[in-house]
Specification:
The chain has 263 residues and is an alpha+beta fold. The protein is built from 7 helices and 13 strands. The model has no long low-confidence stretch (mean pLDDT 93).
């Protein structure tokens, strides 16, 4: 597919982001697009963010757990880029309008902070653990610039893996201090238990998902770098977000995280 096609859809996604409005599925408009085309659209989408003054501070893995795959009817992982403008601090009140969120949903995840570069291919789960300085509870607020979350793999890949904003707890633990596959997570929405999951929900082990990311990015000549924040994927189904909602989570052995939303 031509560079012009990639740029056209990237321009449309960025316009949707800036205006807080959704657009028809890209896959319906151009069914012949491949996943490689979608990643090229995503890179063009990122260029708009960089041109606006944002900088890349990490990457995210999407659609890693069966619960999320079934919910979105997307049955393979994908990746996107994190910029500094997407990051909020624990306890922040996030304005849906100012953040450009259209149809947000909350995910509870484990974030990895890299102390060393990871360059695929050939990266293993153990390589990830050895390269990680700390892990922490994290809320990722996913969002789709596509009408009604009517997406397939091409749509979510092109749309920066449906990333909105995120917050990483300031409670941090060494990655080898506990078994990340067995940790248990509980999420409260407005003081009611709204979701539960375990680390193994993410590709059997969250570090395995990060290894997948390093190896997949290696195919595109993209590296995971020292200082990157990596969001490893949701441990439980996604939760709808509205103004006034308050979310908290606890991940056993890791700590707590919280995020609030206003109009």
């Amino acid at each position: 597919m031509s560079d012009l096609v990639h740029k056209t859809y990237a321009d449309a996604l960025y316009k949707s982001l800036c205006q807080g409005t959704s657009m028809p599925p890209i896959s319906a408009q151009k069914p012949e697009l491949t996943i490689d085309d979608a990643y090229q659209i995503s890179l063009n989408f990122l260029e708009h963010r960089l041109a606006s003054g944002q900088r890349v501070i990490g990457k995210k893995i999407g659609v890693t757990s069966k619960a999320v795959q079934d919910m979105l009817n997307v049955h393979q992982p994908d990746f996107g880029f994190l910029t500094d403008a997407m990051q909020y601090q624990p306890g922040d009140a996030v304005s849906l309008q100012q953040a450009g969120l259209i149809q947000p949903r909350a995910e509870g995840e484990i974030a990895f902070y890299l102390g060393q570069d990871l360059n695929g291919p050939g990266i293993t789960k153990d390589d990830v653990i050895n390269a990680t300085q700390w892990v922490a509870p994290c809320f990722e607020i996913v969002d789709s610039r596509i009408h009604d979350w009517n997406i397939n793999i091409v749509d979510t890949v092109a749309d920066n893996a449906s990333c909105g904003v995120f917050v990483v707890s300031d409670q941090r633990v060494a990655p080898d201090a506990l078994d990340l596959a067995s940790v248990e997570m509980t999420i409260w929405k407005n003081n009611q238990v709204a979701g539960q999951g375990v680390g193994a929900a993410v590709q059997g082990h969250p570090a395995q998902a990060v290894a997948w990311l390093a190896n997949t990015l290696g195919e595109y000549g993209i590296t995971l770098n020292r200082g990157d924040i990596i969001l490893s994927g949701a441990l439980a189904p996604l939760l709808p977000v509205q103004a006034g909602d308050k979310f908290t989570m606890t991940i056993e052995g890791l700590g707590d995280c919280s995020i609030d939303f206003v109009a």
